[in-house]
Amino acid sequence: MDTKIKIKEVLSSLLKVKIEELKDGSTLIDSIGVDSTEMVESVIALEKSFGVKLSPKEITKNSTINDIVNNIQSKLNK
Amino acid sequence: MNKIAITGIGVVSPSGIGKRQFWANIKSGRSFIKKITRFDASLYPAHIAGQIDDLEKYSHISERLLKKIDAFSHMALVAAELALQDAGIDIKNEDPNLVGIFLGNAIGGWLYAETELRDLYLEGRQGVSPYMASAWFPAAPQGQVSIYYGIKGFSKTVVSDRASSLMALGYARKVLAKNKLNMILAGGMEAPVTPYALLCCNTYGALSKNNDHPAAAYRPFDQERSGFVIGEGAGIVVMESIQRARGRGANILGLISGYGTSCDGVNRINCASDGKELARAINMALADAQVAAEEIGYISLDGLAVELWDNSEIKALELVFGENLKKIPVSCPKSMFGNLLGASGVLDMIIALLTMEHSLVPPILNLEKPALNSLNYVAKESREYKVSKSLIISRGRGGINSVLVVEKL
């Protein structure tokens, strides 16, 4: 599955937001008003889904979906 | 001290959600005590309760928020919404710094807590929801309601066992009487119908084990009493000064005019048998309200359905009311839907307000042969009485006494 689609599905299902709300170029804080606890949950869920190690500094409230895709994709490619 | 107006009622209970449905069931004397169906509780010594099964129908809370909160916060959010609607208040038009929340709770949000603790031991620390820390503790509903409505004024959560919510109302009145805030959402919530919370309630040793006859199990003051039955729910009211309520043309449902509290201080679990400290709290509330004992037209009893507690409550009333006691109608309507522990007092107060509004005292269920005959019990069915002043008694483990006087405008 396309990494971007999978990331959106994980976040949508976890945070109970619509997939359309997760806009590619918007930060998570701007698009869905994510809070710090939701970020902790999101990082853990993405780690589990993709089998990669992510630090909370790499993916933050100010990350866009595109940023997250690039980060995870680069780890998957290694 | 100033009397404070109540202008909105929000109730979430096994006997109904919203005050119309609630009162319709209360005045009819219907029991809502049933076998617990939420989980398999059949091996618990007591496995009956007053449950709420359809909260979602009344809720506008998003799924995104619901996954972060326990049921007791959910109940508080619904009760707060109903109270604000009833009061005709759009909180967006209020100064958020001058709105407060005072809630009572006894045990916290255990459905959330026990689920996450199970996951901690099964899956390790990564299996625990990051919302656990903010979901289970007794002040969580205060926090969630304040976030939901943007409330920023002085607020408090009272944890004082079953006396919690009546104490929260007394505290809220004190703060409003000092003109520190414009309005307060006050009351309490409790969600004890969970596997672990039910276990804790069972170890208290005072629950009725009459599981085969749920509707007949909770029988305060009756010779055949066997202990109380738990229930879940929330009650929240809108409180504001009489002047402000009149100024905005609000419907004043009643006034909180007096509050008293004391501790028996004799035992970790039990109350004192002599009722003296409870009598002192009642006198304190009457003096605070500047109401004479003979003016009281309805007494809402705590009614734990445990001999020591019931008898000491009667002793306290005899000490205060003397010969006049036989004339005052008394009831314990929680026998219909269960003892909501930390939220029991506010539901009793809501019923007292509705009693005064409708001139109808609802019954104590299952009181067939009173163990002591010194009270004017309203049993079996509602009875008409014109009541202008009511006294509400709420007591917690170890003999925490709280008493409120409410009256008609």
Rg calc of chain B: 20 Å
The fraction of residues assigned to DSSP E strands of chain A is: under 5%
Helix share bin of chain A = 55-70%
Provide the low-confidence segments of chain A as ranges: none
Q: Any low-confidence stretches of chain B, pLDDT <50, length ≥5?
A: none
CATH topology of chain A: Non-ribosomal Peptide Synthetase Peptidyl Carrier Protein, Chain A
Please outline the major beta sheet of chain A. none
Descriptive overview:
The complex is a heterodimer of chains A (78) and B (409). The longest helix of chain A is centred in the middle third of the chain and has 15 residues, at 36-50. In chain A, α1 packs across α4 (65-77). Chain A is an all-alpha fold and 78 residues long. Chain A is globular and about 30 Å long. Chain A has a single domain (3-77), classed as ACP-like (Non-ribosomal Peptide Synthetase Peptidyl Carrier Protein, Chain A). Chain A has 4 helices and no strands. Chain B is α/β, with parallel strands linked by helices. Chain B has helices spanning 19-27, 63-66, 71-87, 110-123, 132-135, 140-149, 164-177, 195-203, 214-217, 242-247, 276-289, 307-321, 344-358; strands spanning 4-13, 16-17, 33-35, 48-50, 99-104, 156-158, 183-190, 230-231, 233-241, 254-263, 298-300, 329-331, 360-361, 376-377, 383-384, 389-396, 400-407. The radius of gyration of chain B is 20 Å and the shape is globular. The model of chain B has no long low-confidence stretch (mean pLDDT 96). At the A-B interface, α3 of A face loops of B.
